[in-house]
């Protein structure tokens, strides 16, 4: 992974360019908190912002985008349809609501948030329509295991461009990564720092000391080295800036193996085969 700057992108299978690093806003409060985080990120040269209907902060994200004053074409904005709104017509309606709250004319990426059994195929058909109608530049899924993807692909007209999943050194998702690579589906990481729990891991601390970097920077770079798009969340200006200072070094093969060795297939979020929301 030779990304050299925050503006560096991966090219999705439909030719759309997606930044390798972005800002996630899960659990960032609507109002000033999210407005500031988004504005600071864009001012620090982030170009990708990831939100979702269920985060209930799309209006603030839109306001932060507006206040940052960067042209819309430069930005890559993602949102997701929530489980309760899955299904064909309800997804189309949910998309319009998200767009309206964000104050945007189109989205760069729209995702199915979770693989709701019996619904995600109809939801996907709605996403395909939004894509054909040019309301969104790329479509994808989130929290899909290999078997969910196989099931979707058995009927899909358009292959998902992205699969956003939990990914960090305690959950390296090797089988899923291999499958996504074979299918040319870009993998994206949520919770790359394991919601902060990995910041004090002794192995991560040891690797960080080798490069004079913070543990957060090592974890972010580790994801990028695995060619996984990464969207760390922060509401602190200095941390947002620091999280992006990961393009001036590469982690050695030996240290990557050390970090990979932390894998326990351990989740901080729900298992996509067993969630009840």
UniProtKB/TrEMBL annotation:
This is Diketogulonate reductase-like aldo/keto reductase. The keyword Glycosyltransferase does not apply. The record marks 80 as: Lowers pKa of active site Tyr. SUPFAM superfamilies: NAD(P)-linked oxidoreductase (SSF51430). GO terms for molecular function: oxidoreductase activity, acting on the CH-OH group of donors, NAD or NADP as acceptor. The active site is at 55 (proton donor). PANTHER family: 2,5-DIKETO-D-GLUCONIC ACID REDUCTASE, NADP-DEPENDENT OXIDOREDUCTASE DOMAIN-CONTAINING PROTEIN. The keyword NADP applies. Residues 23-264 form the NADP-dependent oxidoreductase domain. Substrate binds at residue 113. Pfam families: Aldo_ket_red. Keywords: NADP, Oxidoreductase. It comes from the Bacteria. InterPro entries: AKR, AKR5G, Aldo/ket_reductase_CS, NAD(P)_OxRdtase_dom_sf, NADP_OxRdtase_dom. The lineage of its organism: Bacteria, Bacillati, Bacillota, Bacilli, Bacillales. Belongs to the aldo/keto reductase family.
């Amino acid at each position: 992974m030779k990304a050299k700057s925050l503006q560096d992108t991966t090219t999705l299978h439909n030719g759309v360019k997606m930044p390798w690093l972005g800002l996630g806003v899960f659990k960032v409060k609507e109002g000033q908190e999210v407005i500031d985080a988004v504005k600071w990120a864009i001012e620090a040269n982030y170009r990708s912002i990831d939100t979702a209907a269920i985060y209930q902060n799309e209006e603030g994200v839109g306001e932060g985008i507006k206040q940052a004053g960067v042209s819309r074409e430069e930005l890559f904005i993602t949102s997701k349809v929530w489980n309760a709104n899955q299904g064909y017509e309800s997804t189309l309606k949910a998309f319009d609501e998200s767009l309206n709250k964000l104050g945007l004319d189109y989205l760069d990426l729209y995702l199915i948030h979770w693989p709701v059994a019996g619904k995600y195929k109809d939801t996907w058909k709605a996403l395909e329509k939004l894509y054909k109608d040019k309301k969104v530049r790329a479509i994808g899924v989130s929290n899909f295991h290999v078997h969910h993807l196989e099931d979707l692909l058995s009927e899909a007209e358009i292959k998902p461009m992205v699969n956003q999943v939990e990914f960090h050194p305690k959950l390296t998702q090797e089988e899923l990564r291999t499958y996504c690579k074979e299918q040319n589906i870009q993998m994206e990481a949520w919770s790359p720092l394991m919601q902060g729990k990995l910041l004090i891991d002794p192995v991560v601390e040891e690797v960080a000391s080798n490069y004079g970097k913070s543990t957060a920077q090592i974890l972010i770079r580790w994801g990028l080295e695995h060619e996984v798009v990464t969207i760390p969340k922060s509401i602190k200006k200095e941390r947002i800036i620091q999280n992006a200072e990961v393009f001036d070094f590469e982690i050695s093969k030996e240290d990557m193996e050390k970090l990979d060795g932390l894998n326990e297939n351990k989740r901080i979020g729900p298992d996509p085969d067993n969630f009840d929301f």
